[in-house]
Known about the structure:
Number of strands of chain B: 10
Mean pLDDT of chain A: 95
Structural class of chain A: alpha+beta
Strand content of chain A: 5-15%
Oligomer: heterodimer
Largest sheet of chain B: 4 strands, mixed
Radius of gyration of chain B: 20 Å
Shape of chain B: globular
Largest sheet of chain A: 4 strands, mixed
Strand order of the largest sheet of chain B: 1-4-5-8
Radius of gyration of chain A: 21 Å
Strand order of the largest sheet of chain A: 1-4-5-8
Amino acid sequence: MRFTPTELTADELALQTEVRSFLAEELPPGSHEPGLGMSARHDKDFSKKMAERGWVGMALPTEWGGSDRNAVDRFVVVEEMLRWGAPVGYHWVADRQTGNIILKFGTDEQKERFLPPICRAELGFSIGMSEPDSGSDLASVTTRAERDDGGWIVNGTKIWTSNAHTNDWFICLLRTAPLEPGGNKREGLSQMLIDLHNTDGLELSPIPFLNGEHHFNEVSFNDVFVPDENVVGQPGMGWNQNTTEMAYERGGPDRWLSPFSTVEQLLRELEGTELGPLAVELFGELTARWWGIRNLSLSVSRLIDAGEAPSVESSLVKEMGTRFEIEVIEKLVEFVDHELSPGSSSLFERLLAQCVLTGPGNTIRGGTIEILRSVAAKGLQGLPA
Amino acid sequence: MSVDSLITDTATRLFEQHCTHSAIQQAEADGEAPGIWAAFAETGFPWISLPEEAGGSGGTLLDALEVLRLVGYHAAPIPAAETGMLGGWLLASAGLELPEGIVTVAPGTDTDSLTVDATGAVSGAVHMVPWGRAAERLAVIADGTIASIPLAGATVEPGTSLAGEPRDTLTFDSVAAETAPAPGGIDVEALRFRGALSRVALMAGAIEKMSRLTVSYTNEREQFGRPVARFQAVQQHLVWAAQDAALARMAAETAGRHAERDEDARFEIAAAKLVANQAATRATKACHQAHGAMGMTQEYELHHSSRRLWSWRSEYGGVREWSAWVGAAAVDAGADGLYPLITR
């Protein structure tokens, strides 16, 4: 394990300036209700504007509609968007991981079909992993796909599928070979791309989120036909592909910036008042800790660009970053010290109320911190994760 | 900007040879370690980052911080920071002679009362001075003047840090000092930040050592028929210590790079000290818990790291002092400037 300090190059700083100007113009403070990091609003128009500037699918090759930029460039764009609370929800998953998976494992036909629309922000993706009896133990999924002429017939249920109702497609982890008693459950799994809204036998129903919003869905499959051309990579190799996909989910700014817009807004609302030592020290501690975590997270992106697979490093950053997010929320609640109203006239207080109501998910989504610890600890001991 | 691996390799070999468990124990019992210091001084390491024309060893501040990281890693019981990047830096910057022996500086306590009169005579007391008893000179900065005070004329009242390292009270009664005007930019605040940076580097090394020691111990120690590192509850401690090791080292190296460029690195140093102080607190807790009773004895080496961390986390400013400093910078930056400050 080694995190090498790194700084942004002149080109990367120029990109940062460009993104900041874009945001200051498109979403000046006070003109929009910021989101909490990656729990951002879906705004196809905003996603489109980003795509026009080459900021969606930016690390994908130009031949497939991307900008051929690298992981650090994407880091720069993403951190600015998230800290601003910009509405990046629509293209978020496709940009972060689905595009990469299709590029890495998909056929040329699939790349042609999916990557350019992802980069134009015309195709939003959800992730179909969890099931009623399958969360952290993801290899235990039982939604099954059985062979049929030219494709597969799928039956089963996916749950906690974020934004299936607002996105267009999802990438599902399915069992394509039955699990024999005593067999390896990591074998016989496959990844498939499925249209969420134009597929016979596929049914979506909302599962109300902790804050009352429609975010999660249950997606049930009743004899859903998936053609062979929608299978990603080799049938049966889904577990390895999925593990690769999870690596894209870890260690980035989305794992430590969720409450940033809330803290920034607190500072904004306190401007012009005399701050006591408690407030000053609170801002000081949070600022310093964000500085520290950002440096670690940035160095993970640099490692990815150097062709390394920093799975231990990214697990460490994600575990630490999401716990930090929760600590930030707790410190803000202690600082405020009165009951929060989700409908408060103070934007800071509205945001903090949402932080409290959605915060527990931060250390769960994309792999619970317990799973991450297990991955990281094995890496620290030189054992296979 | 990077450190020559020759420095890392040479210092590592030196400390591996000299800073054995028993040698560090002995240093604590004796209150000094002249043998370890002599071997260290032989290489010229104490004076890295001080210009050769001033009698230093040359090299960069980053080189000096790398040596300090290794001092921390190996729990070397020597005043490396004081003689070089703190005291030596003060003397060299004012054109005062670098002595052959140890130089120390006072980290600054509320009850320090040193005064230098117009004739250069020093009176008063300074407390918690690292290796005061073994030093040849005390370097002091005050009111635009840098003084090099011979310790032959001081009264030394021995004391220790939580790590059992010398932290002495030095009392002077009209002792003649060599003085010179301090160059611009070198003042009490500058020394405070530099002292903080030195502690961040030391802590980064100590946390890394503790983290590795804990991984290896928990893989050897068996309970319930298997290595305790196989238990998830123990793995949590390994992960947290590794995170804090990474965080403190990143903080040290990032702040060091900014300071090396001779820019205003106060924000980075303040943030680094705060982050490292907290990392020290969390990591010592995690590593001690994972070690169980074994870590509660001086027969085992964990305490060389953990007790030093409890000392260094408070030296040159604890969490509150640096939170207040960074907080003032954040408030000054304002809401629109907050993220640009973090990413500057």
